[in-house]
Design goal:
2 domains, globular, Rossmann fold, disordered C terminus, alpha/beta, 14 strands, 455 residues
Amino acid sequence: MRIAMVGTGYVGLVSGACFSEFGVEVACVDSDAGKIAELRAGRIPIFEPGLDKLVADNVAAGRLTFTTELAPAVAAADAVLIAVGTPSRRGDGFADLSYVYAAAREIAAALRRYTVVVTKSTVPVGTGREIERLIREARPNADFDVVSNPEFLREGSAINDFMRPDRVVIGTGSERAMAVMRALYRPLYLIETPIVATSIETAELIKYAANAFLATKITFINEIADLCERVGADVHHLAIGIGLDGRIGRKFLHPGPGFGGSCFPKDTLALVRIGESAGVPLRIVESVVAVNDERKRRMAEKIIAACDGSVAGKTIAMLGLTFKPNTDDMRESPSLVIVPALQAAGARVRAFDPEGMPEAAKVLSGVAFCADAYEAIEGADALVLLTEWNEFRALDPGRIKARLRGRVVVDLRNVYDPAQMREEGFRYVSIGRASTLPGAGAPVPPPVRMDVADD
């Protein structure tokens, strides 16, 4: 079986590599000649654990190729998957579909035999029908079907998510197209992966609804964490208490500085706009968007408050800049709000992130990037942990104390044990744990870490 993957961004590259691992012949197509040259040279433009080896193995096996030539890749394909970007459109928050529609027009010109045209990109309801209309308008006699096949890949664990997904969603009304999709996903059928076969419109909406629901859980526990701080409760024990209820579930109940990344921010906003266009206001999702935006600003205020109300002239050591660990993705990261707010308040920011500093340097100015965590901490007045990379969990409190000029530690991911940090002499501030607040009552036991998943 042969497919063409249009777009070699995060979704296209990971999906293309994984399909080739299934034994499919995959041609990844991109108009960016520089990116294709890098991929042909074995250089992966994104950080995703295991992706470099997966790509190298399948290129060596002859199943995975990279090209700028769309027409021959489409002409030879049984299915063409559109995996181009759908960023938020400036000014109104709708998904920008210009790249999707441009790809559809190019695909139309290249069709030579029956082909299934698949949208992997996250697109609003109605996009599949518009793709069908555009292709039919350009090629009235073309033999094709359009399918919606949304992706559910989490950055940092995308390969496992693809190989062993919770489900595969396939939206089509054509049995002929469904047969092609069954062949494409045959290895997942063999391990009895749930396959949700539905309409194009339903498949398109499933992705938005899933991301909005997960974003709502994150926002809910963040607000409950604020309440815990006020009333003397512990948000981690609370999360266990509600997460063990099978109707609620344990995941996405870990408090933090707000969600970011390539999916949740743009997809929640796009869903709000979809609802408005359909005349169905989505008040819960609207609140999630507003609360999450405000939370990032409030985290900067929390850091300033921990520094006795002022960071003017102070040096802040920032550990972690990406929106989550195991990625170099800076899109919509809380650091993009928190760091400039601290700088505007007069702080000097020194930062370390294991993978994200090259990308961070493109979007954050005036930050001193350091070679490791201890270099960032050296001589700082306060330490802020923003992204929970595993290596930060293993930092030695004694070495932190020896290098940190001040005694303030603001842990926005609740990585450290409050009792241990107090014993080391730190003024320790975290999220939703009342024992870290001045004047709080008796300390609570260390929390039991929950099974945490993220976008």
